[in-house]
Specification:
The complex is a heterodimer of chains A (about 550) and B (about 100). With about 550 residues, chain A is α+β, with helices and mostly antiparallel strands. Chain A has helices at about 10-30, 35-45, 70-80, 105-110, 145-155, 230-245, 255-260, 265-275, 285-295, 310-315, 320-330, 355-370, 390-400, 430-440, 445-450, 515-525, 535-540, 545-550, and strands at about 50, 55-60, 65, 85-90, 95-100, 130, 170-175, 190-195, 200-205, 220-225, 330, 335-345, 355, 375, 380-390, 415, 455-460, 475-480, 485-490, 500-505, 510. Chain A is about 35% helix and about 20% strand. With about 100 residues, chain B is of the alpha+beta class. In chain B, strand 4 (about 60-70) and strand 5 form a beta hairpin. Chain B has helices spanning about 45-55, 80-90, and strands at about 10-15, 20-25, 30, 60-70, 75-80. Chain B has a five-stranded antiparallel β-sheet, covered by helices on one side. The chains are: A alpha+beta (about 550), B alpha+beta (about 100).
Chain lengths: ~550, ~100
């Protein structure tokens, strides 16, 4: 199967050994041979957290690509070991919320059987690398980022020097000028491109991140050669490992180092280290690149005309289908094909949640319509990257049967929300029920389409798993003397025009959030000019008029 | 409205083997419905916590902590939303957790 990296025997032997290692660690913990303090870092290295209701297992989906077989394995785990569902996250991973410690070795074994694991989904290490959900399909793509995502996976997995960093470290990569991977909010971000000589090179950005102190990543180097990219990242990580703060968890991310030292000074240090270490040891061998690139060769596309008569007829005949096409299709580089976003955001639903039955349906449909491949996006949706236009109507009918055909991709109903206080031990406030309320308030899909692109992102605490700082409307749950309150920002942007949202005003109560969002939307509709999206209007007229609408002219 | 203070408390933890939310009950057993939890006041809280920490060392439970409650119709009701959700299950999935009669 093309488009998916296949583990070799070394990978599989390593995973099998790792499962057995953790099986023994669990046995020793249950037998009392390991204390919780000793065991906690071991379980976290295997993606196992203790949350509000049970253990939570976070499973890695490297660079956000799943095979249909892997999706079926996840469905089976959800049914057998969880409560029949899973939750896709903003890290393109999947979480199960109701896991028993005693079951985890068996679950990890089931994952290993399909070349999956939960390694480096927690802990102060290089986390699962994320990328563009339309990689290998987008017309604007210059370089396929999955190739380098896989190279980074191999480089960073159990990297002995970077297993105990000052804090976690997140890398995102794209190969397109249009940023669908939220590069600016990552510790390191790479944009692969063709250099002046046509060879692959990388723009390297550093120091992005949200949380308590949000920063957008800054350009570190605009042209690192392909053969040097591993050496360059080694240098970045070494400097961070050496100088990153370990005295204060809130100041330990590389963004704080960049902020305190300055990107120019940091660049000097990184490039001095880079000059020192570049050479045969870290040089990325072109043969290795080509070997990995072969795994991501284009699937066997049919030769099709640009226009599909069947597609056009269905679109004309069926307004519901036409509406779904307007919001949930993406252009494709291959003539006669389209990318499809399956939003996990049904009206009133829980963002990112998917039942085992739906997972199995998606796996079957992926086999039938998209070369057996499914991609979770950082916006908590699923992508079929390569669908024949001729097949779109049949796919839509099948998706609708499984409540997976909501026509709201990129619209106000397509809300990112972290698990919040309903599941997460770190949360201060709930996020899911507010996402549900907003989704229901704007249930009218015609209204959503009229409003246009509007990205609501919501977090239940300052850790910002829901990316609220870069939401067109961002919603942050805070605890005020035991009462859930919500701080609202507007004007954030996670794309190539990245921006942090500005605070609208004082936090509002739980019951006021949806009304506040509606006031913002209504004001936008009154003010917008032709072709303006919500954030365009915010950029043009500023935050203050929106603030006055919400809080009154005395604001 | 939540507030800290010297009011009545229960002792909360998670079972080590399953992660299930449990409460310290009669005879120092760890019980799943909050309604079966023992309620402690004043100096009893510290003493109960000592016994809970012993259960941690005995590898029965993890993360033992006192939780503020109010007595509503004689039943303990956590003051903070976080603990109410732990006691019942996700507020967005009434079909899951103890609120749905799911015990481990």
């Amino acid at each position: 199967m093309s488009g998916l990296y296949r583990y070799d025997e070394l990978d599989r032997r390593f995973l099998a050994e790792r499962v057995e290692q953790f099986r023994r660690q669990v046995e020793r913990r249950l037998a009392g041979e390991l204390t919780e303090e000793e065991f906690r870092p071991l379980r976290l290295m295997n993606g196992l957290y203790l949350q509000l209701h049970a253990y939570m297992l976070r499973i890695a989906v490297p660079y956000g690509v799943l095979s249909s077989a892997q999706m079926r394995a996840l469905a089976a785990i959800g049914r057998r070991h969880d409560r029949g569902y899973g939750h896709f996250t903003t890290r393109q991973n999947l979480q199960f919320n109701w896991i028993k410690l005693v079951d985890v070795p068996e679950i990890l074994g089931a994952l290993a059987a399909v070349d999956m694991h939960a390694i480096q989904t927690s802990g102060n290490c290089i986390r699962n690398v994320t990328t563009d959900q339309f990689a290998g399909a987008a017309p604007d793509e210059a370089v396929d980022p999955r190739v380098y995502g896989e190279i980074l996976r191999q480089w960073s997995t159990l990297h002995p020097e970077f297993t105990f960093l000052p804090r976690k470290f997140k890398i995102a990569i794209t190969g397109s000028p249009h940023d669908r991977a939220a590069l600016a909010i990552h510790d390191v971000a790479l944009r692969a491109k063709a250099g002046a000589d046509g060879a692959v090179c990388f723009e390297v950005y550093v120091g992005g991140g949200l949380g308590r102190s949000p920063f957008l990543a800054k350009l570190l180097n605009d042209q690192v050669a392909e053969q040097d990219i591993i050496a360059y990242l080694e240098a970045v990580l070494r400097i961070y490992n050496q100088y990153g703060r370990r005295d204060n968890i809130y100041k330990a991310r590389i963004k704080i180092l960049v902020h305190e030292v300055g990107v120019d000074k940091l660049r000097e240090q990184i490039e001095a280290e880079f000059d020192r270490i570049r050479g045969p040891k870290f040089r990325l061998d072109p043969e290795i690149v080509e070997t990995i690139r072969a795994h991501f060769a284009p699937p066997p596309f049919d030769t099709l005309p640009a226009e599909s008569v069947a597609f056009e007829q269905a679109r004309t005949a069926d307004p519901e289908f036409a509406r779904w096409c307007r919001s949930n299709l993406a252009p494709h580089r291959q003539t006669g094909y389209a990318g499809v976003t399956i939003t996990l955001k049904p009206t009133g639903g829980i963002p990112g949640d998917i039942t085992s039955e739906q997972m199995e349906a998606v796996a079957d449909l992926a086999d039938r319509f998209s070369f057996g491949e499914v991609r979770p996006s950082h916006e908590q949706n699923l992508i079929f990257a390569h669908v024949r236009k001729n097949d779109l109507h049949a796919l839509w009918i099948e998706l609708r049967r499984h409540d997976l055909a909501t026509a709201n991709a990129g619209l106000i109903g397509d809300i990112i929300a972290c698990p919040g206080l309903d599941y997460c031990a770190l949360a201060n406030a709930r996020s899911i029920p507010l996402a549900q309320q907003i989704s229901e308030r704007f249930a009218d899909l015609d209204r959503q389409h009229d409003i246009g692109e509007l990205k609501i992102k919501m977090s239940g605490c300052i850790n910002a798993c829901g990316h609220h700082h870069v939401g067109h409307i961002g919603i942050l749950g805070v605890d005020k003397q035991g009462v859930e309150n919500y701080q609202i920002t507007i004007g954030g942007d996670a794309t190539e025009t990245a921006a942090l949202g500005q605070v609208l005003g004082p936090a509002v109560k739980y019951d006021e959030v949806t009304d506040t969002v509606e006031k913002l939307v209504e004001f936008y509709l009154e003010q917008r000019r032709a072709g303006e999206r919500f954030i365009d209007t915010v950029a043009r007229i500023g935050v203050r008029p929106f603030k006055e609408r919400v809080y009154g002219s005395a604001a | 409205m939540a507030r800290s203070g010297d009011g009545p408390k229960v002792i909360s933890a998670n079972r080590l083997d399953t992660g299930a939310v449990v409460w310290l009950g009669a005879g120092d057993s760890w019980v799943e419905p909050l309604s079966a939890a023992s309620v402690f006041e004043g100096d009893e809280v510290a003493a109960a916590l000592v016994r809970a920490k012993a259960a941690e060392r005995a590898n029965r439970i993890v993360d033992a902590n006192p939780v503020e409650i109010e007595l509503v119709d004689g039943r303990p009701e956590p003051v903070r939303a976080r603990e109410r959700i732990r006691a019942k299950g996700p507020s967005v999935r009434a079909d899951l957790g103890y609120q749905a009669g799911q015990f481990s």
